[in-house]
Design a protein that fits this description.
With about 400 residues, this protein is α/β, with parallel strands linked by helices. It has 13 helices and 16 strands. It has a single domain (about 5-410), classed as Thiolase/Chalcone synthase (Peroxisomal Thiolase, Chain A, domain 1, 3-Layer(aba) Sandwich), CATH 3.40.47. Strands 5-4-6-7-1-8-13-12-11 form a nine-stranded mixed β-sheet, sandwiched between helices. A three-stranded mixed β-sheet has the order 3-2-14. The chain has a two-stranded antiparallel ribbon with strand order 9-10.
Length: about 400
């Protein structure tokens, strides 16, 4: 497969909250069979943000790691884009807070993108266009996906929560992944599958309809990326990565693509076909979902969390191979694209692997988890917040809103 490896992802880093909830414990507390969460959703645990941890603090932590771990000078960043659907102000972007706290140049173009879970992919392709146009003048772009998925206690969406940020540096001749500009397909349609009105802290969703919208967008973007070609793609890919609101959704997505490309229908009633689907999924998708299963739904960053998982495990063995990436945002917008893993990607597996960070997280009891969720309800209007009250001791934290101004402090 011939790609045009001109621009892509040069650095990657994840940062998330200090606490998490075990899904078995949550299921038991809610009187639910744990298999519903562990197998039905594919989730083992989910990251939970404390009131002092927000979209800004996670974005900055991820951005700092990407710059430091990949030895990138902040002055080399000429564009900063933050994709989020959980911003902290209707007017002021998360990006401008991150710009200051990351120490970027004042001549850096900075903005926020919002289209549900699609915002970071929009930032990635916009950054590629910025570089291709010549405006970058040798500089790089940083795209940060930062979100908190929160649906409330004892709700249907409770087990699909999560929080975290993924920072990417976009540059020519990238060290991790090149994106083929000739195979980027897009899809947009106005649907009411998931939305959050200005007056509501929590989103409204039509779950079954949203899954259908996701799959329709996947079909449309895939067709656009291949310019309407009927040429089968999946068997020639080393991996297929998808937007992951919950791990089981990746299985549904891969099933849809396999059905499109083979013309077959796969169901449990057809044993041979179902076995073929499971094997295909087990080879091309499942190995790269471990981080998603441990962190949960991080909205704009979920696709790129899978990419981190793939590169930390197989950056060396899959060097030079082609993969697909699919991003979906409710409402809806989507992109399907092809990328090529860089020859030296495996050299950076230790720098992008968040395993140590995850091992240092604190396992929250159900009581602690519920207290954090309740405390977060009014965090935006609290005048003073003390990170120590939530077991947080070092890092950048949101410390309250005074005179209608959000304050951030390093501890």
């Amino acid at each position: 497969m011939i790609l045009n490896p001109t621009t892509g992802i040069d650095a990657l880093a994840f940062a998330g909250p200090a606490g998490y909830v075990d899904m078995t414990e949550l299921a038991q507390a809610r009187g639910v069979d744990p298999a519903k969460y562990l197998l039905g959703l594919g989730q083992n645990s989910m990251a939970i943000a404390a009131p002092c941890e927000d979209t800004v603090t996670m974005a900055v932590a991820a951005g700092q790691q990407a710059l430091q771990q990949f030895d990138i000078d902040p002055d080399d960043i000429g564009t900063l884009i933050v994709g989020t659907e959980t911003g902290i102000d209707h007017s002021k972007p998360v990006a401008v807070y991150a710009h200051e706290l990351l120490g970027l140049s004042q001549n850096c173009r900075t903005f926020e993108t919002k289209h549900a879970c699609y915002g970071a992919m929009a930032g990635l392709t916009a950054s590629m266009d910025w570089i291709a146009s010549g405006r970058a003048r040798g500089r790089k772009a940083m795209v940060i996906a930062s979100d908190i998925a929160r649906y409330g206690l004892n709700t249907a969406g409770e087990p699909t929560q999560g929080a975290g940020a993924v920072a990417m540096v976009v540059a020519p001749e990238p060290r991790l992944l090149s994106i083929d500009p000739m195979h980027i397909g897009d899809y947009t349609r106005q649907v009411m599958d998931f939305w959050r009105p200005l007056y509501s802290k929590y989103a409204f969703a039509d779950g079954h309809y949203s899954i259908q919208c996701y799959l329709d967008a996947l079909s449309g973007a895939h067709n656009d990326a291949l310019n309407g070609s009927s040429d089968a793609l999946l068997d020639r890919l080393a991996a297929s990565l998808y937007h992951v609101p919950f791990v089981k959704m990746a299985f549904k997505a891969h099933q849809r693509l396999l059905e499109i490309e083979t013309g077959n229908s796969y169901s449990k009633e057809q044993a041979d076909g179902w076995q073929q689907l499971q094997e295909h999924f087990g080879e091309k998708v499942a190995p790269w979902l471990k981080l998603n299963a441990e962190i949960g739904n991080i909205y704009t960053g979920s696709l790129f969390l899978s990419l981190i998982d793939l590169l930390r495990q197989a950056g060396t063995s899959l060097a030079g191979e082609t993969i697909s990436l699919f991003s979906y945002g409710s409402g809806c917008g989507a992109t399907f694209c092809l990328g090529q893993i860089a020859a030296q990607a495996g050299d950076w597996s230790a720098q992008l692997d968040p395993a140590t960070q995850l091992q240092q997280r604190r396992r929250l009891s159900i009581d602690e988890y519920e207290q954090l969720i309740n405390a977060s309800e009014n965090a935006d209007t609290e005048a003073q917040l003390n990170p120590a009250d939530y077991g947080l001791d070092s890092g950048l934290f949101y410390t309250g809103t005074r005179d209608h101004i959000r304050h951030y402090e390093h501890f």
